[in-house]
Specification:
about 625 residues, mainly alpha, globular
Length: about 625
């Protein structure tokens, strides 16, 4: 963050408040024509990136120089042109009418400035990736086979990136950011200012604080709750990690483990409805499937991912004899009950969505409820100064998502215009021998590579554009294919060597970043089983009878418990290597069984699954009872 003086801080704060108010205005009276809505969205957020984000780490605490203000001023004109001349641009014939000289100049300026803004405000890796795709445009005519594409002239590049609205900078992906995502970002900021994040932490502390590994479980639960309304994993780490990581360290947890738990849990929040890191809105735009259906389908998978983390943390705590939180260090039940009103906006949001209201209406209503509820407590009351700060925070939080979506739109334009997506789909099909499981492995690797260092939403957009056609061509349904790619684009956030949330957590824990990243990867690894199941068994996506849904959920839970125990080296007792291998085999067999719905739903398998799960869950109670009984009958010395 750049060092701003008083007037600069007020000026850029007012600038961000205006864009937040614009988003609220269009949410209540109706959105504008696409070029106007998207143009104004970037008109405010692109210049802000040059003022708020430094060109290099060395300039973090330096003042905003004249050159940065000059870049901010320049970046106003391209989106302003798109918004102002929207009628003429709508009437022109795409790739038929000539591109005007002014459009060539402004389009070139927009591409260059957006690349630099992405490098500063999002992550350098994404800017380099986009630049590589631009290089491909010029190299494609000289490449063999499926990577060949016809030559493109410079005017054609400017048109595909700057002037059209189905892809490119002002395409449908940016449209999602300029409508739904912006509104939910505002909702998240209002929730943050009203101390909802702290309430989530206190609630998690009461739920799991006293148990073995209590502080780590607090991190998992609170990060999941806060992540459900947060749009960025790294921001989630800083919001909840400043409390959970020091607490874990205080009670004897290793630094890298404390950071890893927070990183893994915060990353998983991008899969947790209702916001899902903006992925649900983008997925709805790409697939045409309703947002509500996507959120419902994603629910079980996200809950099972968090269940896998809780089990991993529990077994690790048992093995290392990690203690829970003392009663005096926790908020009282009475205080939790008094603060429980903070959950009302989320409940209203979910109810309205399930009732069939649009995400626009539901989010606007939830924001209004948060605003009114802020007056319950003096310390959260929306005074003019606090309201200004909330709207400023909203605008600031929009910057990274808006630029990431616009940057991803550039990649989508190149991939679709050149036919590269179909070429890569052919390669995946050939390499996999036409078999779906090897193809899924290749698409998973594509998602993980794309997601290394990139925010989950642009990583998903790029990965589904490249790898999605292969899955669809092999008969995978639209929704499972997209959720499969999105799932691994999210989990790439804790996949070394580049795992930004883990690096953020390491900075709080004062641990080595790469060690923290590998630890976070191991904590989330049990969750890697889940996407493979829902592709083959859509009951895990809430598509099936209640009995089928319950059966697959319980069996996946058993597989996760086996896998977590094998990874932890603990399953009710420390395990040697042979027992760990046996547990891995059991986890694999159970997962394989979950991918065979006909076999899984047989009465015998259901009964066996219930008995196994009952045995796993009842064993700790039996051991506790036996220990108590033994102590009771032990003779006095």
């Amino acid at each position: 963050m750049k060092n701003l003086n008083t007037w600069q801080n007020k000026a850029i704060g007012t600038w961000l408040v205006i864009i937040s108010m614009f988003q609220l205005y269009t949410a209540t009276v109706g959105i504008f024509q696409p070029r106007i809505q998207r143009g104004i969205h970037l008109l405010f957020l692109l210049p802000a990136a040059f003022v708020l984000f430094p060109a290099s780490k060395k300039q973090v605490h330096e003042k905003v120089g004249i050159f940065n203000w000059f870049l901010a001023l320049l970046s106003i004109f391209p989106p302003l042109y798109i918004a102002y001349f929207h009628e003429r641009l709508t009437e022109r014939l795409e790739f038929v009418d000539d591109v005007l000289t002014i459009e060539l100049v402004l389009g070139t300026l927009m591409i260059v400035l957006l690349l630099e803004a992405v490098r500063r405000a999002v992550v350098p890796a994404m800017a380099y990736l986009i630049a590589a795709f631009f290089a491909y445009l010029y190299a494609a005519p000289y490449l063999p086979g499926v990577f060949y594409a016809k030559p493109v002239v410079f005017a054609e590049i400017v048109e595909m990136q700057f002037l059209i609205t189905d892809a490119g900078i002002f395409g449908s992906i940016t449209g999602v950011s300029a409508t739904f995502v912006a509104l939910f970002v505002i909702f998240g900021a209002f929730m943050e200012v009203t101390k909802t994040g702290q309430f989530f932490t206190d609630l998690a502390c009461r739920i799991a604080g006293k148990s073995n590994g209590g502080p780590a479980k607090i991190a998992v639960i609170s990060s999941g709750l806060f992540g459900s309304i947060s749009g960025v994993a790294a921001a989630n780490v800083y919001s909840t990690g400043v409390f959970t990581i020091p607490l874990m360290k205080k009670l004897g947890y290793k630094r890298r483990f404390a950071g890893a738990v927070e990183a893994a849990a915060s990353t998983g929040g991008m899969l947790m409805p209702p916001v899902m890191g903006a992925g649900a809105f983008v997925m709805a735009e790409i697939t045409g499937i309703s947002y509500v259906n996507i959120v419902i389908a994603a629910m079980l998978g996200s809950l099972l991912l968090y269940a896998s983390m809780v089990v991993r943390v529990h077994y690790t705590a048992q093995k290392q004899k990690l203690v829970g939180v003392e009663e005096e260090d926790m908020v009282s039940y009475k205080q939790i009950l008094k603060d429980s009103y903070l959950l009302i906006p989320m409940v209203i949001l979910v109810v309205l969505l399930l009732k069939g209201y649009s995400p626009f209406f539901a989010a606007t209503a939830a924001i209004a409820i948060v605003f009114l509820m802020s007056f319950i407590k003096k310390e959260t009351r929306m005074t003019p100064a606090r309201l200004f700060e909330t709207l400023r925070l909203s605008g600031h939080n929009m910057i990274m998502i808006a630029l990431a979506c616009a940057g991803a739109g550039m990649v989508v334009a190149i991939v679709t215009h050149t036919g590269l997506a179909l070429g890569i789909a052919t390669v995946i099909t050939n390499w996999s021998g036409g078999l779906i499981f090897p193809a899924m492995l290749l698409v998973m690797l594509t998602s993980l590579v794309m997601g290394m260092g990139l925010p989950c939403t642009p990583a998903y957009i790029i990965a589904i554009t490249i790898g999605g056609p292969a899955l669809l061509a092999m008969g995978v349904d639209m929704l499972p294919a997209h959720l499969f790619v999105y799932y691994f684009a999210v989990l790439a956030g804790v996949t070394p060597p580049v795992c930004v949330p883990a690096f953020c957590a390491a900075s709080i824990a004062k641990s080595k970043p790469l060690q923290t990243g590998f630890e976070a990867f191991k904590l989330a690894l049990a969750g890697f089983l889940i996407p493979y199941v829902f592709v083959f068994n859509q009951a895990l996506l809430m598509r099936g009878t209640p009995l089928e849904i319950i059966t697959v959920t319980l069996m996946v839970l058993i597989a996760i418990i086996f896998f977590a125990g094998a990874l932890s080296g603990y399953f009710f007792k420390p395990l040697n290597l042979i027992l760990q291998i046996n547990l891995f085999i059991l986890a694999g067999l159970t997962t394989f069984l979950c991918t065979k719905p006909d076999l899984l739903n047989s009465p015998m398998i259901r009964i066996l699954g219930i008995l196994v799960l009952a045995g796993i869950l009842s064993r700790p109670l039996w051991l506790k009872f036996r220990g108590t009984n033994k102590a009771t009958h032990e003779p006095n010395a």
